Amino acid sequence: MFVRLSIAVAALSLLGSAALAQNAKLTDPQIAHIAYTAGVIDINAAKQAETKASNKEVKAFAKDMVRDHEAVNEQALDLVKKLKVTPEDNDTSKALSKQASDKLAELAKLKGAAYDKAYIDNEVAYHKTVNTALETQLIPSASNPELKGLLQTGLKIFQGHQQHAEHVAASLK
Amino acid sequence: MSSGRHLAILVLLALGAMAVPAHAATIQIVMENLVVSPAEVSAKVGDTIEWVNKDILAHTATARNGDFDVTLAPKQTATLVLKKAGTVDYYCRYHPNMKAVLKIAP
């Protein structure tokens, strides 16, 4: 399981950087799309966890993810509206969505403690990947200062989520 | 009742009203980017704590000992009058990494 997970994470980062390498520089509409997609992915995973998880802490974590990512995405939508930017689908968004739906299907097959562990481990890995992408690619590429600012706020929030997920993961062991 | 007496009562009332805020302070604590600042605050019974949530997320100030559980909507401020002395650890239920402490003197 863990090996498979690591491979998935590696594949995700490779896909991400390959797509990013092709477009020498991501445009703001693409960045907005990637950031929004990354949020939707985590909301979908959390909604699955709200119904499937058995551990109390895991359930609470999933609820927190829905609340926070919906709040951040709402801000993102308000911002793109204000800036009159239309988020633009791109290879990175597509790769993220594909990987996420595979993961969701994989998690759907698990039950009980095995599900809880797989979900929370994936949350740790996923937030790590997203945070790295934000830090090294999305934030540096963003041109609009308000978009850059929202991504920076997002990074702080998601770093908190990563720590929270790590804490919950450790408590399951 | 003479008008002199009226005045005396008014003065007493005014002094009484002034006496309360002179003792009780309002202490502001900011929550921003998932950090509580200052993380440690010394206060007295009767003081008001004013939590300012500058984040776009909801937070809570939840006492570990159950003394209070204040919910803060995004970009909102909430207050709490301290009623009991003691050292109270509190945290955000939604973001358990956010931890702080109130040291309340009698």
Question: Can you lay out the helices and strands and say which pair or pack?
Answer:
The complex is a heterodimer of chains A (173) and B (106).
Chain A: H1 2-22, H2 28-52, H3 56-83, H4 91-108, H5 112-141, H6 145-172
Chain B: H1 3-23, E1 26-32, E2 35-37, E3 40-44, E4 48-53, E5 59-63, E6 69-72, E7 77-81, E8 86-91, E9 99-105
Parallel strand pairs in B: 1-4, 3-9
Antiparallel strand pairs in B: 1-2, 4-7, 5-6, 5-8, 8-9
What does it look like?
The complex is a heterodimer of chains A (173) and B (106). Helix content of chain A is 87%, strand content 0%. Chain A is mostly helical. Chain B has 106 residues and is of the alpha+beta class. Chain B has a single domain, classed as Cupredoxins -  blue copper proteins (Immunoglobulin-like, Sandwich). Chain B is 20% helix and 45% strand. In chain B, a hairpin with a 2-residue loop joins strand 1 and strand 2. The longest helix of chain B is centred in the N-terminal third of the chain and has 21 residues. Chain B starts with a helix and ends with a strand. The model of chain B has no long low-confidence stretch (mean pLDDT 87).
Instruction: Identify the strand order in the major beta sheet of chain B.
Output: 3-9-8-5-6
CATH superfamily of chain A: Ferritin, core subunit, four-helix bundle
Question: Separation of termini of chain A?
Answer: 15 Å
Q: Assembly state here?
A: heterodimer
Structural class of chain A: mainly alpha
Largest protein-protein interface: A-B, 14 and 13 residues
User: What's the overall geometry of chain A?
Assistant: elongated
Biggest sheet details of chain B: 5 strands, mixed
Q: How many β strands of chain A by DSSP?
A: 0
Number of domains of chain A: 1
Number of strands of chain B: 9
Protein name (chain A): DUF4142 domain-containing protein
Organism (chain A): Bradyrhizobium macuxiense
Pfam families (chain A): DUF4142
Signal peptide (chain A): 1-21
